[in-house]
Design a protein that fits this description.
This protein is mainly alpha-helical. The chain is built from 4 helices and 2 strands; from the N terminus they run βαβααα. Strands 1-2 form a two-stranded parallel ribbon. Strand 1, helix 1 and strand 2 form a beta-alpha-beta unit. The longest helix has 15 residues. The chain starts with a strand and ends with a helix.
Length: 71
């Protein structure tokens, strides 16, 4: 899936296995990446596994662990 490069999205989509980065306001590039994405055989289980680290529960656990470690 294509993702525009705004608000930290380029920190989440780190390779072409989980998505495609597109410059903001570039409709030609967006159309190209949409076409590419529609013709890509995505590995759903790998994408789900990768995305789980960004669930709030996981993020909060990392923040709390860091807080406990240093305070």
């Amino acid at each position: 899936f294509p993702v525009t490069i705004i608000g930290g999205s380029d920190d989440l989509v780190i390779n072409k296995e989980v998505g495609y980065l597109v410059e903001s306001r570039n409709s030609i590039e967006l159309a190209e990446k949409l076409k590419t994405a529609l013709n890509t055989s995505w590995h759903e289980s790998e994408i789900i596994e990768y995305s789980e680290q960004f669930e709030w529960k996981e993020v909060v656990q990392r923040i709390v662990s860091t807080y406990i470690k240093y305070f």
